[in-house]
Amino acid sequence: MEELSFEHIAIMGNLFYEDSNKKIYLTPEEPHTYHSNQWIYKQLPNIEEWRRDVQRQQQFHQAHQCTHLAFTFPANHHLDNDWKQILNKEGYQLGVLELYVIESAELARWQTKSDVQIQIVDKDNLEDYLTIYKHFALPFGHRFADESVKRTRIHIQQQYDNVVRLLAYYQNQPAGILDMIVSDEIVEIDGFGVLENYQHQGIGSTLQAYVGQYADTRPVILVADGEDTARDMYLKQGYIYKGFCYQVVKENIK
């Protein structure tokens, strides 16, 4: 398996600026989408450098109606207690993202359920997909959910991106979704969720088996919340842990 890293993860946003230390994503048409409006560090800054970047990002974001600050730190760099105390004091939410990889052939061998049907999303099943999509987006706020649904609807209707969106029906009822971000080298799993009432019915494993078949010989990657119970599930299922990174967000900036 090729050595994969966070560099292979797709960022859905406009790359506004890049230098040897960082990438700046700024997407004015989606001001409430954190990952589309963030700074990704290649090198770990010191605290004073970061404070200067905070001021610059705040100016950028306020000029484009973004009401948050967001930074992703380099992969596999721990933030010490000084960092964590400052971030907590200044009102940032600190999260850990973890990268997992699995061979497509292994996924393709997973057992599937005959009463689970997988469809690629198109104009005919678009509304079923978006209903589930919004359900999983709402915990991040109504503004984000509405913005994200609007963007996704346009992307599907106009076939705008390299995302293949899957919709799972369980006994003819829409039950789960999964996005495949497809490139020549890899397939990335994103936007993966099964509605609570339909969990433990083999829907998630059937969706992932479909990904394995679709990916053919390409490896499959995904990013999981390091504090999410799903991480244990991925390890048990055969995914290989490839590293972590810290991500911080501050909401409702003035």
From TrEMBL:
What single Pfam family name could you report for this chain, choosing any that match? Acetyltransf_1
Q: What residues does the N-acetyltransferase domain cover?
A: 116-254
| GO MF entries | acyltransferase activity, transferring groups other than amino-acyl groups
Task: Name the CDD domains on file.
Answer: NAT_SF (cd04301)
Query: What's the protein called, per UniProt?
Result: N-acetyltransferase
What InterPro entries would the database entry show?
Acyl_CoA_acyltransferase, DUF5613, GNAT_dom
Q: Which SUPFAM superfamilies match?
A: Acyl-CoA N-acyltransferases (Nat)
Could you list this entry's UniProt keywords, alphabetically sorted. Transferase
Q: What is the lineage of its organism?
A: Bacteria, Bacillati, Bacillota, Bacilli, Bacillales
